[in-house]
């Protein structure tokens, strides 16, 4: 018989009989965001009151410490590892994507499997991509008795997720009568959120919806940033080109271990199919133009886009698009950029 793993000296000790209470948790509101304000105040509750169905939360603070100790692991800052301790939030993540029986869900960074557990219990088949080989093994072991989980020990930003998902979907379609698109539901590492979003949103042919738990500031920038503000960037144009984003609810930092320095928020991206994308002759040239425009953010477009055509041609295109010839990139909406691109980019 293999020896039991020794407790990790860098983690707080866990005692099954300990009467020590875990940190307080916060439940997200049941209502969505109204404008830029959160519609409902958060209600504090003790860890002892957090439940999954009829049983005690299997992913609370002590259970998470025990799981990490079993692999001799500590959360790695380089991987952006912050483990969710509140199963109620995982349930609301799944509910935000309306995960139901028969769904196929991609999860990025399953960690100890707390969200994975909720997704599987909702009736979904899950493809979990985990970069940390120890955590990939832990999740695989935790759900060894189900055939509704496939764990890939890969770096998500480098793996061919499209190929993996198509393979999984085809295998399921052969055994079950299903044709609906897959979904993404994930508590992702904050430090690679932009890379993940850029990889996922153009995949409307595979996924119908992407629900991500993000750093709150990043979530607000993606969804609520207005024109003529310093926060308006190429990523806003990208997000709206490929999806319809919606801010769902806020998740205070006290729900994670280790506790990050910022709060989080959940965003839902309803993905568009290719037929619904704005009409541009080339997405590559379109986003190249948008990026060039913002590279000289304080410059007028007639200056920053001179490598595409002359200033006079740019001014005329702006006027033909009902825009001022002195326009700057932060003043243009997605539709404005589409019109400008189709007028000045020659093919």
Automatic annotation (TrEMBL):
Keyword Plastid among UniProt keywords: no
GO biological process: rRNA methylation
Gene3D superfamilies, alphabetized: Ribosomal RNA adenine dimethylase-like, domain 2, Vaccinia Virus protein VP39
InterPro entries to which the protein is assigned, alphabetical: KsgA/Erm, rRNA_Ade_diMease-like_C, rRNA_Ade_Mease_Trfase_CS, rRNA_Ade_methylase_Trfase_N, rRNA_adenine_dimethylase, SAM-dependent_MTases_sf
UniProt-listed SMART domains: rADc
Top-level division of the source organism's lineage: Eukaryota
E.C. number(s) listed in UniProt: 2.1.1.-
Gene Ontology MF terms: RNA binding; rRNA (adenine-N6,N6-)-dimethyltransferase activity
Ribosomal RNA adenine methylase transferase N-terminal domain ranges (all copies): 89-273
Pfam family, one: RrnaAD
Residues that, per the record, bind S-adenosyl-L-methionine: 82, 84, 109, 130, 155, 187
Keywords for the protein's UniProt record, in alphabetical order: Methyltransferase, RNA-binding, rRNA processing, S-adenosyl-L-methionine, Transferase
Family recorded in the similarity comment: Belongs to the class I-like SAM-binding methyltransferase superfamily. rRNA adenine N(6)-methyltransferase family.
PANTHER family in the cross-refs: DIMETHYLADENOSINE TRANSFERASE, RIBOSOMAL RNA SMALL SUBUNIT METHYLTRANSFERASE, CHLOROPLASTIC
Protein name: rRNA adenine N(6)-methyltransferase
Species name: Cucumis sativus
């Amino acid at each position: 018989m293999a020896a039991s793993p020794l407790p990790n000296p860098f983690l707080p000790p866990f005692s099954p009989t300990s009467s020590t209470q875990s940190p307080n948790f916060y439940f997200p509101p049941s209502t969505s965001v109204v404008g830029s304000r959160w519609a409902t105040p958060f209600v504090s509750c003790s860890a002892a009151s957090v439940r999954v169905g009829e049983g005690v939360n299997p992913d609370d603070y002590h259970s998470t410490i025990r799981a990490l100790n079993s692999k001799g692991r500590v959360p790695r800052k380089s991987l952006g590892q912050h483990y969710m301790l509140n199963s109620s939030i995982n349930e609301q993540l799944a509910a935000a994507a309306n995960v139901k029986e028969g769904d196929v869900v991609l999860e990025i960074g399953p960690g100890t499997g707390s969200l994975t557990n909720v997704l599987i219990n909702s009736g979904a088949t899950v493809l979990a991509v985990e970069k940390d080989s120890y955590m990939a093994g832990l999740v695989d072991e935790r759900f060894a008795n189900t055939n509704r989980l496939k764990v890939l020990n890969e770096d998500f930003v480098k793996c061919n997720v499209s190929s993996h998902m198509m393979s999984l979907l085809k295998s399921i379609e052969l055994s079950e009568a299903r044709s609906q698109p897959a979904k993404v539901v994930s508590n992702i590492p904050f430090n690679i959120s932009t890379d993940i979003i850029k990889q996922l949103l153009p995949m409307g042919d595979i996924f119908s919806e992407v629900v991500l738990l993000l750093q709150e500031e990043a979530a607000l920038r993606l969804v609520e940033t207005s024109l003529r503000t310093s926060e308006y960037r190429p990523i806003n144009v990208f997000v709206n080109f490929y999806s319809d984003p919606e801010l769902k609810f806020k998740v205070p930092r006290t729900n994670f271990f280790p506790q990050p320095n910022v709060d989080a928020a959940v965003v839902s991206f309803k993905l568009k199919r290719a037929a619904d994308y704005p009409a541009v002759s080339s997405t590559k040239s379109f986003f190249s133009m948008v990026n060039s425009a913002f590279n000289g953010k304080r410059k007028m477009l007639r200056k920053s886009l001179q490598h595409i055509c002359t200033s006079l041609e740019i001014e005329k295109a702006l006027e033909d698009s009902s825009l001022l010839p002195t326009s700057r990139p932060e003043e243009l909406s997605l539709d404005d950029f589409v019109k400008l691109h189709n007028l000045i980019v020659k093919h």
